Amino acid sequence: VRNAQFVITNSFHGMVFSILFEREFEVIPLKGELSARNGRIEELLNKTGLAASRDYVKAKQVIEQMRKEAFSYLVEVGKENGIVQ
User: Fold this and answer.
1) How far apart are CA 31 and CA 82, in angstroms?
2) Is the pTM of the predicted complex or chain greater than 0.90?
3) N or C: which end of the chain has fewer CB within 10 A?
4) pLDDT tens for residues 26-72?
């Protein structure tokens, strides 16, 4: 993905690496009984604004905020359970 000019994927992780390496991409949704897996792809595209445009600067800002929130949550849970001081 790092060296690709364009990525076509049906995978959440393929999409994520495309975003992180700022590569143009297209997601082909899964069909049938696997279609339930499309939800997290759609959610990330909507949260980052990439569903509407490929603004990687904005998307990376959103992803960084999501990382900070996730890290804070993990620290808090760790404190509550005596794992983190």
Assistant:
1) 44
2) no
3) C
4) 999 999 999 999 999 999 999 999 999 999 999 999 999 999 999 99
